[in-house]
Protein 1
Amino acid sequence: MDCTKNRKPFGEFRINPKTYILLPPPHNMDQKKHIVAVTALIKNFKGDKFLMVKRHQNEIAFAGKWAFPGGKVERKESILESLKREVLEEAGLDIYD
């Protein structure tokens, strides 16, 4: 069923005489934001421990919690470049190929 043909100005779609569904306003897919994130799993030489960093108390998400180093990939940055940058920023470690 193509509900886009039956859209009302406020996003209503009538299923039957008594039932309506509210639809989100039409949008352009080019306007959607996609966030790509990277996470580093860094283990010690023995392989029995992983590096975790404590998030700052002022962080918006999971403030003060422990997490693996990582973050968002910046525009025009490769996944590996982003991973290297995030690990350097959060843990002070250089990653090399």
Note: Confidence is low (pLDDT under 50) at residues 6-10.
Protein 2
Amino acid sequence: MREPGITREEIAFDVALETGFSNRYSRDLVDQVFKCASQGIADDGFLRIRGVGLWKAIHKKRRLARNPKTGKDAWITARRVVTFKAGKAFKRKIKQED
């Protein structure tokens, strides 16, 4: 069974339908957009798309946690993660579809 959501291939197919570009060109275009977005977040620490939202790379400190199965303490390493905050227009669009 397929997971809900949309895949990169489906986005490329939609781009091809809307623009008249070939499927291959649309797939390459979508791949390039995601590559630039990922690189922007990695290099600059954030990506803002008006009407959609803000992706932000944040640093999480090393912390002590507890394994829920065993109850033992375990250290979680410091790491960099990406967060997303939806923009107002995006939130309105999601609420309309409920």
Note: The chain has a mean pLDDT of 93.
Protein 3
Amino acid sequence: MAQIHIKKKHKLGKEGARKTAEKLADSLSSEYNAKCKWADDDLTFASTGVKGKLHIAEDEVEIKVDLGLMFRPLKSKIESGIVAQLDTIIDENENVA
């Protein structure tokens, strides 16, 4: 199983990061039909061939994604997409704060 591991620093605080993560979860749900669930500071998500966890800390967001066999060839594209989307969402929210 291929794995994607991304860490991104932020200045949103834990509550701001959670709101940002909720936007990402909404996007995952609508684009990939992913099922998302919160448990404390962790957002778990799963869809066909993909599962992962997003962890929120006071100054950092960490995402781990496990890709099934059919998504392995797309690992770079998926990783780039997640990084770009995360950068956009965090940057938008940091500029508002």
Note: The mean pLDDT is 89.
